Amino acid sequence: MPSDTPVNPAAPGGGGTTAVVGARASEFDATQARKQSTLIIKRFLRHRLAMVSLVVFLLIAAFGFLGPVFWTIPVDDASARGYLPPSLEHPLGTIQTGKDMLAQLIVGTRLSLAISLVVALTSTVVGVVLGSLAGYLRGATDSVISRLTDLMLIIPSIAVSAILVRALSGSWYTVALILATFAWMSTARITRGETLSLSQREFIEAARASGASTPWVIFRHLVPNMVGTITVNTTLAVATAVLSEAALSFIGLGVQSPDTSLGLIISENYSQITNRPWLFWGPFVVIVLISLAVNFIGDGLRDAFDPRQTKVRS
Q1: Are 204 and 143 spatial neighbours (Cβ–Cβ below 8 Å)?
Q2: Which of 225, 218, 236 minimizes the C-alpha distance to 307?
Q3: How far is CA 169 from CA 102, 161, 203, in A?
Q4: Mean pLDDT in the chain?
Q5: For residues 248 and 241, what is the distance between their CA atoms, to the nearest angstrom?
Q6: Percent of the chain with pLDDT over 70
Q7: What does pTM read for this prediction?
Q8: Contacts of 298 (CB under 8 A, 6+ apart)
Q9: Among 28, 91, 173, 253, which one is least packed by beta carbons within 10 Å?
């Protein structure tokens, strides 16, 4: 007769043990397919330095973009005395004109990040399009784009950028577009090399045989297979743009008033490095933190997208 006594999962021979073992076996079953995006995210999350850098970068971005919500002193308020020391009212003191240094730093961080992001995204789009066309079409198109890339690489970008900024205007978006003009070449060369390799693969030949157009092959098949390289190169372009903008603004040929940036703040206060060091070291430390954080994030993304790293099961 069947027994009415319930089976104890913990008892020897109980069905619960079998269920638990089955669940664990399913969890660690190496034959189960996993999405590539899931593997990439897991690799990136295990990169401790990249995760710490990501947190630092997000905090700096929050400081620049959300800072005015919490710090209400206007950036153009010059009602205080010049060169006040740090206090509760002015945590970083005031600059020579009496403006609050913390308010200056918030706006400078926001505009420097905005410039670097515009430069990185614009140069990436231009570089990917030109590099993909050169590698896929080859022939005369490849020759023209490659010679243009070589020509742009030999131009002293900082000097020419300084001349163009002075000739046009010192607004932050003008500086961003001019810097982007001289920042796409490395992306184009890397993308061209990747495209030359990928264009010989079977799935590209199949797309061509099916009558797919050139834009469809490039943006539907080639670019998605280069997303790892493109992403890493974009993050590095952010760090390069921050340093380039700071260099231009420091010599007085970058962002101009009434806009401000981290480089311009350093330029205006570097003479106070001995007497009032907080005016110099504040923006300087932010620039260094942005550059280091973005570079370490790029290292983490490079390791995450690297298909040769197969220690994935977790």
Answers
A1: no
A2: 225
A3: 26, 11, 48
A4: 86
A5: 11
A6: 87
A7: 0.82
A8: 232, 235, 236, 239
A9: 28
Residue 238's CB: how many other CB atoms inside 10 A? 23
- Of residues 23 and 281, which shows the higher confidence score? 281
What long-range pairs does 206-210 form, CB within 8 A, spacing at least 24? none
Q: Which two tokens stand for residue 238?
A: 């952010």
Report which residue type is found at 168. Answer: L
% of the chain surpassing 90 pLDDT:
64
130-141: per-residue pLDDT in tens? Answer: 999 999 999 999
Q: Which residues contact 44 (CB under 8 A, 6 or more apart)?
A: 50, 51, 300, 301, 303, 304
Rounded Cα gap, residues 257 and 212, in angstroms? 51
- Say what the pLDDT of residue 244 is: 93
Distance CA 237, CA 301 (A): 14
**Cβ neighbours around 227 below 10 Å, total:** 11
The first and second tokens of residue 200, run together, are 């010989």
